[in-house]
Design a protein that fits this description.
The structure holds 2 protein chains of 2 kinds.
Chain A (H helix, E strand, L loop, with lengths): L1 E10 L2 E7 L1 H4 L7 E5 L6 E4 L1 E5 L4 E7 L3 H9 L5 E2 L1 E6 L10 E7 L2 H14 L3 E9 L6 H7 L2 E7 L7 H22 L4 E5 L2 H11 L6 E4 L15 E4 L2 E4 H4 L2 E3 L5 H9 L2 H18 L4
Parallel strand pairs in A: 9-10, 9-12, 10-11, 12-13
Antiparallel strand pairs in A: 1-2, 1-7, 2-6, 3-4, 3-8, 5-6, 13-16, 14-15
Chain B lengths: L13 E2 L2 H4 L7 E3 L2 H10 L9 H5 L6 H10 L4 H13 L5 H7 L21 H14 L2 H9 L9 E5 L3 H12 L3 E5 L8 H4 L8 H13 L3 E3 L10 H7 L2 E4 L5 E2 L12 E3 H10 L17 E5 L3 H11 L4 E6 L10 H9 L3 E4 L1 E8 L5 E15 L5 E13 L2 E4 L3 E2 L2 H5 L5 E2 L2 E2 L12 E3 L2 H4 L4 H23 L1
Parallel strand pairs in B: 3-4, 3-6, 4-5, 6-19, 8-15, 9-10, 9-15, 10-11
Antiparallel strand pairs in B: 1-2, 7-16, 12-13, 13-14, 17-18
Helix pairs in contact in B: 2-4, 2-7, 4-5, 5-7, 6-7, 9-18, 13-14
Classes of the chains: A alpha/beta, B alpha/beta.
The complex binds flavin-adenine dinucleotide (2 copies), iron/sulfur cluster (SF4) (2 copies) and FE2/S2 (inorganic) cluster (FES).
């Protein structure tokens, strides 16, 4: 059981939890993630420590509320409560090499994972430009980025009242590809890094590959155990089957089978919707929040 | 034994009817009552200890006639009978409720049972299970345990155990009883290994496994779940902090069929399918959050225990299930009882077909599997199985869900992050179960590849002995 020391609403639909988890705090490196199981009936979901303190033994997780688990966490977990399980750190640390000039892109909540990596890259002597493509109301980590990289760009937009999630995604892709093209046309970059939904990652990759710049992407495959035991997270990279939890999550964008990844990450959407409806119904019956 | 009346037929255990049991995940076999257990026990010929083939067949050499005789001897006092029988079993096996249920008895203790020459073999597995179940239900195991605890002489030395499956649990129990300070590191959120995430509830209720794990806690074993050795802490770090390390991380890496389309949606490894169901309780979705997709037609590839478990779990979603296997029926490696149960439950079998392609729809979801028909050759391979060969003829089975159950290899993470000697993916140990790194021992599926629960337990026991010797020498 892992105690919640602090909880904050960072922006619309974005919540930060500071959690006592010394076993993770002691070891975690940029690029790694944890698997969280918050409730006895809960799912295991991967989340990324954005900040940590090795001496005090805490980590900070930031969640974008997008489905049942993230919503339930936001609704039900208070400071002083405990999260049942935090396993990790998992995945391979991002290589802390000197690439030169780096463009690090976070699409919506992807920026959470970009943050510790971009910060560390800048620290080891790279010149990092970060871009956050997001609805304006969901811009987070602005001050933190500005304090730790050479340049931070927020490519924000307003969400129109009649937009659904698909319209938001379309706008993210439109903005991200345009902005990346603009930057690559006017400046030289040695390396591009991206975290976001698979569709957005693929669209940006299609722009970057025109310039032939090396690019890495953190892949958001569906995970269950996160330890290499189940194969839920499998992806095809360079024609081979890889497990993104133990072989990744970072992979060479040029080698990834993007369409397969897009299909695989969307597979449970109908059931995720059902889980959400079930939860909202239960909330209503309990006369709970919402 | 002289002038003993021979009873040829086995006393049947109580089993739920197939049409009822496929509606839920409750246990299929209900075991013996005390009366039935005594009746079955009476059939045993009580072969002498040095001769008894059942003892030789059991990998941990339980004194089988010894425990069976207690049931007959104290037939008027069930508590006493079970207490004494359990005492005999515990000398060699700390998890009899589990082994009684999952051992391939037909290849082990029951294989050469003398009664087999006169009639049915003795149902050793179910008797063992009965003793364990009765003891648990009547608090007898806890009594025995609490009598043991005051006699444990606490030692200062400590041992770290990596992975809480049957090998690790057994080693932990043995070492704790020797007085060592034992800490277990388990990657998942629950201890138990395959017993928890792989073998389904209807074959091994999880409450039983939990109870076994609680016994270890009573013995003072510290179990740290959510700790992945190699990431959360390394083996080297463990060696600095503990006097010895035992690696029992199992064989959890699923093997995939190397054919086109293997990453289509709807294709699961048996591990993923079973983990979603057992560990995450996806069969109770949406009450439990973890989803699972079980389509109308399920095709399982493989015919071991894992394949049977996956197929029978899928069947419990009320769908059509077919097990496919590239060899013939005589090479099915699953326990006999499991194959029989699968057939009773209406699962179909297709032999001598080998997948060559998974066919998907436009959304990247599987819709069929193409197989090549195989034929048996007269030559045998290195494992004594008849070789097979493709015929160039194909057959396609429709499939909404495919479960790949063709085997597993030792967990990669720990091997990739340590530097002990590894051969063909398996950790190499010497005759004392020590790896190439001094003070680091290993056992179970991590050194064997996929084996059995009782072999893993046997390793755990043997390693505990070796670790005890090693630490005694070290402290001198
Ligand atoms: C390595 C990695 C790091 C991540 N870090 C963060 C983070 O720091 N902050 C954050 O908000 N999100 C992060 N995610 C995504 C996060 O796991 C999902 O937001 C979360 O699982 C959604 O759960 P839900 O029940 O709220 O939504 P659901 O309605 O269940 O799912 C919404 C979408 O999330 C994805 N998802 C669902 N279940 C899983 C799963 N078990 N594994 C992976 N993806 C899943 C799917 O694409 C799905 O369509 C990360 C994912 C990965 C793989
Ligand atoms: C579905 C299925 C059905 C089976 N049915 C039978 C049966 O009927 N009869 C039978 O005898 N055998 C059966 N087996 C085989 C049997 O379960 C295994 O041989 C046995 O569990 C091996 O025990 P173990 O302790 O070596 O490893 P496991 O049971 O695999 O346990 C290993 C544990 O180590 C943990 N771990 C792995 N890596 C790490 C790490 N880096 N750090 C920390 N922890 C780690 C894992 O999470 C796991 O909990 C079956 C196997 C499966 C998969
Ligand atoms: S442990 Fe297994 S092999 Fe040994 S007696 Fe029990 S059931 Fe038979
Ligand atoms: S071999 Fe059979 S009959 Fe003989 S002691 Fe063992 S169980 Fe009894
Ligand atoms: S999440 Fe199970 S193997 Fe990667």
């Amino acid at each position: 059981m892992f105690e919640i020391l602090d909880k904050k609403e960072l922006a619309k639909n974005e919540v930060m939890y500071r959690i006592k988890a010394p076993h993770v705090a002691k070891k975690v490196q940029p690029g790694q993630f944890v698997i969280v199981r918050a409730f006895p009936t809960g799912e295991r979901i991967p989340l990324t420590p954005a900040n940590w303190d090795r001496d005090e033994g805490w980590i900070e997780l930031m969640t974008f509320i997008r489905g049942k688990t993230t919503l339930r966490m936001a609704n039900e977990l208070k400071v002083g409560d405990s999260i049942m399980d935090i396993a990790g750190p998992l995945g391979n640390p991002t290589p802390m090499k000197k690439f030169g000039k780096i463009l690090a892109i976070g699409l919506i909540a992807g920026i959470i994972e970009v943050y510790p990596i971009a910060k560390a890259w800048q620290k080891v002597g790279n010149d990092v430009t970060s871009i956050h493509v997001t609805p304006k109301a969901m811009a987070i980590l602005k001050d933190e980025f500005e304090a730790s990289v050479s340049r931070h760009i927020i490519e924000g937009f307003d969400v129109q009242p009649d937009w659904g999630m698909n319209d938001v995604s379309r706008e993210v892709v439109r903005r991200a590809t345009a902005k990346v093209k603009e930057l690559l046309d006017s400046e030289h970059f040695d390396f591009v890094f991206i975290v976001g939904p698979a569709g957005g990652e693929k669209a940006v990759f299609n722009v970057v590959k025109e310039y032939g710049i090396p690019m890495e992407a953190d892949l958001h495959s569906i995970m269950v155990d996160g330890t290499g035991m189940c194969g839920a997270c499998r992806v095809t990279v360079g024609g081979e089957v890889k497990f993104s939890c133990i072989d990744g999550p970072g992979f060479d964008a040029y080698q990834v089978d993007w369409d397969e990844l897009i299909h695989r990450t969307g597979f449970y959407a109908p059931m995720e919707k059902k889980a959400m409806e079930y939860y909202l119904k239960a909330l209503k019956e309990d006369g709970g929040e919402q | 034994m002289a002038n003993k009346k021979i009873i040829k037929e086995r006393v049947p255990t109580r089993e739920r009817a197939p049409e009822d049991r496929i509606k839920d995940f409750e246990e299929v076999n209900q075991g013996y009552t005390f009366e039935l257990a005594v009746k079955e026990a009476e059939r045993c010929l009580q072969c002498p200890y040095n001769y008894a083939p059942c003892i030789k067949g059991c990998p941990v050499h339980i004194n089988i006639p010894g425990f069976i005789s207690k049931l007959v001897q104290h037939r008027d006092n069930p508590d006493k009978a079970v207490r004494e029988a359990l005492g005999v079993i515990w000398q060699c096996n700390a998890l009899p409720a589990t082994t009684g249920r999952v051992c391939p008895q037909e290849d082990q203790c029951e294989k050469n049972c003398v009664m087999g020459k006169l009639g049915d073999k003795i149902n050793i597995g179910k008797l063992e299970r009965f003793v364990a179940d009765y003891a648990r239900e009547h608090g007898i195991d806890e009594e025995l345990l609490s009598e043991m605890i005051p006699n444990i002489e606490k030692k200062e030395q400590s041992v770290a155990i990596v992975g809480a499956g049957p090998a690790g649990l057994t080693a932990a129990g043995e070492l704790a009883r020797q007085g060592y300070r034992v800490t277990m590191f388990e990657a998942l959120h629950e201890a138990g290994g395959v017993l928890m995430y792989g073998i389904p509830e209807f074959r091994l209720p999880k409450a039983i496994v939990e109870k076994e794990i609680n016994k270890l806690k009573t013995l003072g074993v510290d179990i740290r779940t959510d700790h992945i050795v190699g990431r959360t802490v390394t083996v080297d770090e463990l060696l600095n902090e503990y006097d010895a390390v035992f690696i029992s991380s199992g064989a959890g890496t699923p093997r995939l069929v190397n054919v086109p389309g293997v990453n289509l949606n709807g294709i699961y490894t048996a591990n993923e399918f079973l983990t979603r169901i057992n560990l995450m309780k996806a069969y109770k979705f949406p009450e439990y959050d973890t989803p699972i997709y079980v389509g109308e037609k399920v095709v399982v590839i493989g015919a071991g225990n894992t394949a049977m478990d996956a197929a029978r779990s899928a069947r419990r979603f009320g769908v059509d299930v077919t097990i496919t296997y590239r060899r013939g029926e005589e090479f099915v490696s699953a326990r006999e009882e499991e194959v029989e149960h699968a057939k009773q439950e209406g699962i179909k079998f297709e032999f001598l077909i080998n997948p060559v392609e998974f066919i998907g729809d436009e959304n990247g979801k599987v819709k069929a599997v193409k197989f090549e028909k195989m034929k048996l050759l007269d030559e045998v391979d290195s494992r004594g199985k008849r070789k097979i060969q493709g015929t160039g003829e194909y057959v396609t089975l429709p499939a909404d869900t495919v479960i790949i159950a063709i085997g597993k290899t030792p967990n990669r993470l720990i091997i990739n992050t340590s530097d002990f000697k590894v051969e063909r993916g398996k950790i190499v140990v010497d005759e004392n179960m020590m790896t190439s790194v001094e003070g680091v021992f290993a056992g179970g599926d991590a050194i064997r590849g996929e084996a059995t629960v009782i072999l893993a337990m046997g390793d755990g026991r043997k390693a505990a002995k070796a670790i005890d010797e090693y630490l005694k020498n070290k402290s001198q």
